[in-house]
Amino acid sequence: MSRREEIRQNRIRKIESLQKKGISPYPEKVKRTHTNKEALDNFDSLQKKEEQVFLVGRIRSQRGHGKAVFLNVEDGTTSIQVFLREDGLGKKAFAFFRDYFDIGDFVQVRGTLFLTKRGEKTLDADDLKIVSKSILPLPEKWHGLKNEEDRFRKRYLDILFNPEVKEMIRKRAVFWNSMREFLTEKGFLEVETPVFETVAGGADAKPFETYHDALDMDIYLRISMGELWQKKLMVAGFEKTFEIGRQFRNEGMSAEHLQDYTQMEFYWAYADYKMGMKMVEELYRYVAKKTFGTLKFKIRGFDIDLSKKWERYDYTETIKSFTKVDIFEANLEEIKRNLDKLGIKYEKKGLNKGRAVDILWKYCRKNIGGPGFLINVPTEVSPLAKRNEKNPEITSRFQVIMGGSEVGNGYSELNDPIDQAERFSKQEELREKGDEEAQMFNHDFIEALEHGMPPTCGFGLSERVFSFFMDKPARECQIFPLMKPKNKE
Q1: Which pLDDT score is estimated for 489?
Q2: What is the C-alpha to C-alpha distance for residues 140 and 121, in angstroms, rounded to an integer?
Q3: In this predicted structure, which of 220-224, 244-248, 324-328 has the lowest mean pLDDT?
Q4: In terms of C-beta density within 10 A (0-12 exposed, 13-18 middle, 19 or more buried), how is residue 245 classed?
Q5: Where are the alpha helices (DSSP H) in 303-442?
Q6: With the CA atoms of 294, 299, 303 and 307 taken in that order, what torsion angle do they form, in degrees rounded to the nearest 10?
Q7: Residue 372, beta-bridge partner list
Q8: Of 123, 135, 150, 145, which Cα lies nearest the Cα of 47?
Q9: How confident is the model at residue 429 (pLDDT cuts 50, 70, 90)?
Q10: Which residue, 479, 470, 438, 487, is CA-closest to 260?
Q11: What average pLDDT score do residues 456-460 get?
């Protein structure tokens, strides 16, 4: 029997013994007058009054022997030192502690606060109860564990032992809440749109497919944050909407790409992409300052300063400067030769010029630190963006470029139903030729556009932005990343 299993069996015996004594190892109620942080923050007042306090938390460590023991008890706010002594608890209660309490147990302690000779704020306990008995021991050496799979599989331990992971989760919450706060203050209405769709739309991506038993039909999980639905709300008369939620793309995994992640998209009627760019700059600065307290970041080896003037990067000229390829003059075969020459790996099945150009651009953007906006994106790779009025080969689209990647995408939305239908038809042809990421023809959306949609700017960003600000892989910045079951690995 392993040491771990031996400890487990011993603790199960303790649970059985407690139950025989009529003591529940998992009581429903606890008494708590203060969090640990509140007790420490109000230490002087509580000590002066000799006021009894009730605290709860997990035993993280224990030291001492004989008739006196110091515990470190941690709740969700902080940890506090608890002093147990036989003459304070009573001989019977102290023996009970010795017999039944272990590191990892959740406890309720009652007592008064005092200052030790070393100057540490401590609770002198006169009563101690188990409120949740742990069966498995906490690992002795978890902090600094390098095996990513182990850390993600037992993420609760990673959070428990690594304060930086817990802090990351707190920052993640501030990140999304500050975005919600910014948009709400700008007059945007938060909405919820369907997760299940009969036609996956709003992005170039491969959807997850599932089956709806009650309606007896195949459906998709959404690949955008309700882009086409929010545009229908523009048709319906709403002028400013946004949604923050989960979306799903059945694609490859990388440091930047996830399949199940949080996204925000806003839609702003009577605004164009230039107005969108101005507000997005404000949004990024606001969220960064609220979440991280700074506008300066080290991202993927680049020094990023959000406070400086954001650059503008022309799509065609940027590709030409890095690769010497003129995307409007080159044909598919010429672009493929350049991809091969540059050593860029790509999926040959269903490859078309638009997809090849996009791959070439993604190679180039790795060299751009930002912050800035990619502009003048070709119509061929922007099926939902409005054409530029002066040059119909490009669109009124912008992408936020930071740390060598795209961390936000927006445009003046295409509201011409005839043009949109033609582009959907071209996308449908690409799908039939094997491009799984090409968009599906959405007849309902075309009908909505035919009722009239005002000029609108739309923009979206995902949790990739948060991971970039953290300068960590996207998967590391999820609270519970998806894992394959152990027996299937």
Answers
A1: 45
A2: 26
A3: 324-328
A4: middle
A5: 315-323, 332-341, 353-365, 417-432
A6: -40
A7: 311, 401
A8: 123
A9: confident
A10: 479
A11: 97
Rounded distance between C-alpha atoms, residue 251 and residue 488, angstroms: 20
Structure tokens at 209: 């497919």
Paired tokens of 143: 């902090």
- Give the phi and the psi of residue 486 in degrees, each rounded to 5: -55, -40
Q: Could you tell me if 77 and 36 are in contact, meaning their C-beta atoms sit under 8 angstroms apart?
A: yes
Q: Two tokens at 31? A: 């008494």
* Whether residue 142 has pLDDT greater than 70: no
What residue type is 124 in one-letter code? D
Q: Do β-strands 121-132 and 79-85 pair in parallel, antiparallel, or remain unpaired?
A: parallel
Residue 436 has pLDDT above 80, yes or no: no
Structure tokens of 250? 């059945």
Report residue 76 CA to chain centroid gap. 21
Which ranges of 240-398 does DSSP label H, i.e. alpha helix? Answer: 273-292, 315-323, 332-341, 353-365
Proportion of the chain in helix, strand, coil states, percent, rounded to 5:
35, 25, 40
In angstroms, the CA 353 to CA 356 distance is: 5
Neighbours of 303 (CB within 10 A): 10
Determine the length of the chain: 489
pLDDT of residue 66: 86
Report yes or no: 460 and 227 within 8 Å, Cβ to Cβ.
yes
User: Taking the mean position of all CA atoms in its chain, how far away is CA 240?
Assistant: 24
Structure tokens at 160: 């428990």
- Secondary element (H or E) of residue 239: none
Q: What is the DSSP letter of 477?
A: G
**For the chain, which domains are there?**
3-132 (2.40.50.140), 156-310+370-488 (3.30.930.10)
